[in-house]
Amino acid sequence: MRPGIHPVSRPVVFRDRAAGFRLLTRSTLDARDTVAWEDGTTYPVVDVDISSASHPFYTGTSRVVDTAGRVQRFEQRYGRTAPARH
């Protein structure tokens, strides 16, 4: 590999405040805020909106969406734009 063209990989904490979940991993992201980890070491922290601890698919709280009803309402409101292909 050529030197000087690759970003620096460092330990970073990703934090999901909504779920109270933190994950220490390596990343090339640069963060301004820091947080103390369980071992007392301070790491840069990146706040995320959603993680595996709060995502409905992983938590089992996902719900079925009525897509057929949405399509019918769209067609009623705007009409069919192209004829159906066979």
From TrEMBL:
GO CC list: ribosome
Domain of life the protein comes from: Bacteria
KW Transmembrane (keyword) present: no
Keyword annotations from UniProtKB, A to Z: Ribonucleoprotein, Ribosomal protein
Recorded family membership: Belongs to the bacterial ribosomal protein bL31 family. Type B subfamily.
NCBIfam families named among the record's database cross-references: L31, PRK01678.1
Record's subunit section: Part of the 50S ribosomal subunit.
Protein name: Large ribosomal subunit protein bL31B
